[in-house]
Design brief:
single chain, Alpha-D-Glucose-1,6-Bisphosphate, Chain A, domain 4, seven-stranded antiparallel sheet, 4 helices, about 30% helix, disordered C terminus, START-like_dom_sf, Polyketide_cyclase/dehydratase, SRPBCC family protein
Length: about 170
């Protein structure tokens, strides 16, 4: 059986509390920065709480582009607001776990975000994993999402600066 153990990281131009708020909003279904590759829908208990569940849908060709949709459910098992969120994949296309870690980058107001993905494919995905590099696709989608988050938060920061600072 194929097992994935991947770590993807990115520098985000915002402090950890802002990155955390964006991460939780995305996992609740905001669809602002992980689209077109992944969409999320929170269960009755949100992902920011232990026991919260999030339905994840992976769109390999992009949202509304056809093709297979890979679905799985993540259940939150550990939360340190502004710093760490860990979840187990309990049903669907993957079994395993993920962890998001946020670290302030000293003196910059920026954050290093990391995602560790440890999972085994299930069902038809197990067969597909023998034909295509799902790990590379996962990392590419995660890096794309982190780049989108960085661009979004950079724009939000620029929009919140006083007009005089922007003009200088």
């Amino acid at each position: 059986m194929r097992r994935y153990d991947l770590v993807d990281e990115a520098r985000i131009p915002a402090p950890p509390n802002v990155v955390w708020e964006s991460l939780i909003a995305e996992l609740r279904g905001a669809g602002r920065w992980w689209v077109p590759h992944n969409t999320f829908r929170a269960g009755p208990v949100g992902p920011e709480q232990i026991g919260g569940e999030t339905e994840v849908t992976v769109h390999p060709k992009g949202v509304d582009k056809g093709g297979p949709k890979l679905r799985f459910t993540a259940r939150t098992k550990a939360v340190e607001p502004g710093r760490r969120l860990s979840a187990d994949y309990i049903s669907g296309a993957f079994r395993g776990r993920c962890e998001f870690l946020l670290h302030p980058i000293d003196g910059t107001g920026h954050t290093l975000i990391g995602m560790r993905f440890e999972a085994d494919p299930q069902g038809m995905l197990k067969l597909l994993s023998k034909l295509t590099d799902i790990g590379a696709q996962h990392s590419a989608a995660t890096q794309h999402a982190f780049a989108s988050l960085a661009a979004q938060l950079a724009d939000d920061t620029a929009d919140s600066r006083p007009k005089q600072e922007i003009l200088q």
